Amino acid sequence: MQANSSAPIVRFENVTKSFGELTVLRQLDFDVAPAEKVTIVGPSGSGKTTILRVLMTLEKPNDGVIWVNGEPLWHQKSGDKLVPASEKHLRKVRGSIGMVFQHFNLFPHMTALRNVTEAPIHVLKMPKGDAEQRAVELLQKVGLSDKLGHYPSQLSGGQKQRVAIARALAMRPKVMLFDEVTSALDPELVGEVLNVIRELAEEGEMAMLLVTHEMGFAREVSDRVVFFDKGRVVEQGPPEQIFGSPQNERTKAFFNAVLRH
Amino acid sequence: MSEQFFDWEYVISFMPKLLEGLVVTIEVTIVAFILAAILGLLMALGRRSSNPWIAQPIGALVEFIRSTPLLVQLFIFFYVLPRYGLRMPAFIVGTIALGLHYGTYTSEIYRAGIDAIDRGQWEAARALNFSPVRTWVGIVLPQAIPPMIPALGNYLVAMFKESAQLSAITVVELTLTARTIGTQSFRFLEPFTMAGVLYFLISYPSSLVVQRLEKRYAGK
Ligand SMILES: Nc1ncnc2c1ncn2[C@@H]1O[C@H](COP(=O)(O)OP(=O)(O)OP(=O)(O)O)[C@@H](O)[C@H]1O
Ligand SMILES: [Mg+2]
What we know:
The structure holds two protein chains of two kinds. By secondary structure, chain A is of the alpha/beta class. In chain A, 36% of the residues lie in helices and 26% in strands. The two termini of chain A are 32 Å apart. Chain B has a domain of 153 residues: MetI-like (MetI-like fold). In chain B, α3 crosses α4. The model of chain B has no long low-confidence stretch (mean pLDDT 94). At the A-B interface, β8 and α3 of A face α5 and α6 of B. Bound molecules: adenosine-5'-triphosphate (ATP) and magnesium ion (MG). Magnesium ion (MG) binds next to α1 of chain A.
């Protein structure tokens, strides 16, 4: 982990997010180094999804600053002050982030191939031929080279999720967010998706932020595990330490409950 | 001859003219429907606008048009607007008024269709950094429109029948043609009966087609 040598790719600085009365992120400080693989674990409702959604610009934080690749995400510089970001600025900074969703969210009216080429063609303005060539490579990489012309309704859950991963990769994000991407799958399909993510993690260059209940998998792929509760980081460290000898009482209680299943 | 209850020779003599009226009715219906489909989409998008200066006036306009009779709107377009210098042929005025009136109905269909799109689709579009225009054109509308087709088809059939109201502002469509024929020969039974038959021959099969479309899209 080259975390200390370089500036973080993602930095949450004092970020607060509330839904009405409910404060979900409380003055959160949290960094991700370039190429770092971070797993967030924690009880249901603790705000794990919210962290990812705020970073993907699907939810707007109430307070604090998020930095992506050295640029403020929800703000832009005006002189030496930070003012709320314009749509143009948001689009520029958002371009380095990709996300894979729990429920895939594939475009049902497009084939697997077009799901992957659509954004490169229309957002990155890539020539159609190049976009298709790259999409074919990516779908091959996730083991779906025989499904290029299939529509999402003709694919299994595991296959859908692998198309969704290829679709996100096609935009060449520097940070990829995975929100419980296997929890909507039948148990026998979980492995094929985890294998794809494991390979991505081994390739290394992309930072990954994962929320998962697959503890064995988290232990295997993560550089760091963050235990999160009530909108705050309770404890974090290398997986051996967090899973092996957690220090905090809440962390211990959580793992006891999870591992009893 | 005029002793006969239903005079077929008379029918044959006026049929060519009546069919001309039918052609006008069909033209009005098709043009007005295209207008309704486009205006309805614009009104639906306008009402969704995050800018209240756009959303609220459009919302008010839609509610106003929908809550007043088509006939009154036709009269306003035909008798009132020319006083303010806006003079157009009856055919055009009538088509626009019919299209606008039904546009307020189709806008509700668009609204429901757009609301039915899963939030996840919008979120995926945003995560992939699509522009707002591209999100509408490439992601949302292609999914929202196919299920609306039966409901739009129902309005097409309704507009075909309601276009008879344009006779009130002198558009020489099927109903007014039948009336003119009747007035000239003092026999109204045959022209109005045949006009009714023509309306039926087109709208009944059309509504059967719409029913089939409904079954097809309901299966999804
Ligand atoms: N759009 C929203 N409006 C209102 N409340 C919300 C919204 N999104 C999330 N919440 C609430 O915020 C809290 C944190 O939600 P979040 O989805 O981040 O939790 P989580 O850690 O991902 O939980 P889980 O493990 O169940 O997925 C929950 O109490 C949730 O009900
Ligand atoms: Mg969650």
